[in-house]
Specification:
Shape of chain B: globular
Strand content of chain A: 15-25%
Order of helices and strands of chain B: HEEEEHEHEHEHHHEHEH
Oligomer: heterodimer
CATH class of chain A: Alpha Beta
Radius of gyration of chain A: 19 Å
CATH superfamily of chain A: Alpha/Beta hydrolase fold, catalytic domain
Strand order of the largest sheet of chain A: 1-2-3-5-4-6-7-8-9
Order of helices and strands of chain A: HEEEEHEHEHEHHHHEHEH
CATH topology of one domain in chain B: Rossmann fold
Number of helices of chain B: 9
CATH architecture of chain A: 3-Layer(aba) Sandwich
CATH superfamily of one domain in chain B: Alpha/Beta hydrolase fold, catalytic domain
Number of strands of chain B: 9
CATH class of one domain in chain B: Alpha Beta
CATH architecture of one domain in chain B: 3-Layer(aba) Sandwich
Largest sheet of chain B: 9 strands, mixed
Number of helices of chain A: 10
Strand content of chain B: 15-25%
Number of domains of chain A: 1
Shape of chain A: globular
Strand order of the largest sheet of chain B: 1-2-3-5-4-6-7-8-9
Radius of gyration of chain B: 18 Å
């Protein structure tokens, strides 16, 4: 059952912290290198490997797919995720969507193809550097996500105002900080009242927080302080994109009512969807929401969803 | 009108005549490699009720394989054991929940996964087509061996009852469950979800989603290799392992699975030799294959067959 929301106070220097990250990003030119990947080219889309610089400096990697024909096209951006593998498009998505959309998936630092010099461990990534907001690895990963959306927005093939960002917490971070998207599909998992949620579960990834605090109990306040810079409740008021929040199932820790503190303050309006514990039903809802929002007609679905 | 699955779907997969000979050879080569097990406590991941270890062993071609090993706190008795096989793109979780239920639990990270990448790393996408024109070098030759080798690791553990070992997983983990149950007689119960690596040549026509789309990408680039690809994959298709499974087994599939076509799940189930087998086909379910509802079914299944509960 969702617990009552924990008291949350946005850090006094929250804006300074993130303005500092954005300023650092501005001082690090992206310097994109874009190379075709012939193996993944189809008769309707060309795939490119993209390398970009983010803060650090750190060199990132992404997959950019561009429909053949004259654009501009609507776009989907999948920002870095808590995963080691970077997918071209998410597993199970109809490859045919690459006919309709420019797609860009971006590996944050530590993910495969962006894992030199730093290779992320999973579990491990969620608490790396958590002893300090400045050292926390997600400071860089959020910057990486913003860099990705900046890159996508710079592409002539992309139709302005028809970009949707799809992902977990970092997707919301990126849209709040970087703009560049009119639509957001977000399934919070890591940074919504994180320690309170972690206390309710023994499942990873949140169990990473529990592991850390079990071995370093004296660090609780320090960890809470670091996480306060990443809590979605502080970012939500800056999101102007129309948003679909993919909540957990009713009765779960991330049920719709648990997300009310963010859904109520999203400035572009929000639709909150409660998971039906079916990747088919949940996925269908998300695909239809995107197609309807972008006024694209019927969604392009995998064969077994048609 | 939703998609309708034909439960009598006839797979195009054909079993090579020398299938058994090929895999007997791989097993013999693997057995000749010293296991060299290594168990390292992981204090950070250990909790009040579960001891967590990073485990390592050596597999085919002397590749060092990582895994997570969990035990109920202070376990000394002979325990039932569960091997948890990973999905294609996900990295193995730490199987604390199985340990809480009284099992020794081993979560595998076959070659190419995090912590098992130093000697073999075709990447993602990439794993599914690496060496796909030659069965003697195809990625899954070693990948399967790494999974089967997990049984050897458990057999060497004093706290494990060698007569009570099970295997489970979903997606790629479902495929690995099938082939492990087929090739290791020590497996006494198996639960496979949404099995991948099953009906490869059917799947690349039934669906156009990744990961199977990797094979279509490959064939689009190298259409002249199709016959060799089909020949190689026949040696690795879980449908061709199914007639060796004699232990109790349950299989769950989602009838709207957009990753592993449910038709291939039916074709696989039809070939499983075990007299004690049951298929759970979930409506309105995709690749999650009814996991929320099916999870307790799996727990009860192993409790019955491995714990006698």
């Amino acid at each position: 059952m969702p617990t009552p929301e924990s008291p949350y106070a946005k850090p006094a220097d929250f804006d300074d912290y993130w303005n500092g990250v954005l300023a650092e990003l501005e001082r690090a030119p992206a310097r994109p290198e874009i190379e075709p990947i012939p193996m993944r080219e189809t008769d309707f889309a060309t795939l490119y490997g993209v390398r970009l610089t983010s803060i650090g400096p750190y060199r990132l990697f992404g997959y950019l797919s561009v429909p053949k024909g004259s654009g501009p096209f609507p776009a989907i951006y999948w920002p870095p995720a808590y995963a080691s593998v970077l997918q071209i498009i998410p597993q199970g998505t109809a490859n045919e969507i690459r006919r309709r959309f420019v797609t860009f998936s971006c590996a944050g630092r530590g993910q495969r193809n962006a894992d030199k010099p730093f290779a992320a461990m999973i579990p491990g990534l969620l608490t790396l550097g958590i002893e300090s907001p400045l050292a926390y690895v997600f400071r860089g990963i959020v910057a990486d996500a913003v860099r990705g959306i900046q890159f996508l927005s710079s592409r002539d093939e992309v139709e302005p105002l028809r970009t949707v960002v799809v992902g977990n917490d970092v997707a919301l971070h990126a849209v709040a900080l970087g703009g560049g998207a009119s639509y957001l599909v977000c399934a919070p998992a890591l940074f919504m009242d994180a320690l309170a949620l972690a206390a309710q579960t023994t499942s990873y990834p949140l169990e990473e927080y529990n592991d850390y605090l079990r071995s370093s109990p004296s660090m609780r306040e320090v960890v809470a302080d670091t996480l306060s810079y990443f809590d979605l409740r502080a970012f939500a008021p800056s999101v102007r994109a129309h948003t679909l929040l993919m909540a957990g199932a009713k009765g779960s820790a991330l049920a719709p009512e648990a997300l009310a503190p963010i859904s109520n303050v999203l400035r572009g309006g929000a639709r909150v969807y409660a998971s039906q514990q079916s990747s088919y039903l949940d996925g269908m809802f998300s695909e239809r929401w995107i197609a309807d929002s972008l006024q694209l007609g019927d969604p392009i679905l995998p064969e077994h969803w048609r | 009108m939703t998609y309708t699955v034909d439960p009598s779907y006839q797979s195009k997969v054909r079993k090579p005549e020398d299938f058994d000979q090929f895999w007997d050879g791989v097993k013999a080569q693997t057995a000749a490699v010293p296991l060299r097990p290594d168990l390292r406590p992981d204090p950070m991941r250990t909790s009040e009720d579960v001891d967590v270890f990073q485990a390592f062993y050596t597999s085919l071609d002397s590749v060092r394989v990582a895994s997570w090993y969990c035990l109920p706190k202070g376990a000394r008795a002979q325990l039932p054991a569960i091997i948890v096989a990973p999905g294609y793109q996900s990295d193995p979780g730490i199987p604390k929940e199985w340990a809480r239920r009284g099992y020794a639990a081993l979560a595998l990270a076959p070659r190419g996964k995090l912590r098992s990448r130093s000697q073999f790393d075709p990447g993602y996408p990439g794993l599914l087509t690496y060496g796909i024109v030659d069965r003697s070098v195809y990625s899954y030759r070693g990948f399967y061996a790494d999974a089967w080798r997990g049984v050897d690791f458990l057999l060497g553990r004093y706290e494990v009852d060698s007569d009570r070992i099970g295997v489970t997983g979903s997606s790629q983990g479902g495929g690995l469950t099938i082939c492990t149950a087929a090739m290791r007689a020590e497996i006494r119960a198996a639960a496979a979800g949404a099995p991948y690596l099953t009906g490869y040549v059917d799947s690349i026509e039934l669906t156009h989603t990744y990961p199977y789309e990797e094979i279509n990408d490959y064939l689009r680039q190298r259409p002249e290799s199709r016959a060799q690809v089909v020949e190689t994959l026949a040696y690795f298709d879980c449908i061709n392992f199914a007639d060796k499974i004699t232990c109790p087994i349950i299989v769950n599939i989602g009838l709207q699975d957009n990753v592993c076509p449910p038709e291939t799940g039916y074709a696989l189930f039809d070939k499983i030799a075990s007299a004690d087998k049951k298929l759970y086909a979930y409506h309105d379910q995709g690749h999650s294959a009814g996991s929320a509802e099916h999870g307790p079914v799996i727990v009860d299944f192993f409790d019955k067959h491995l714990r006698g509960v």
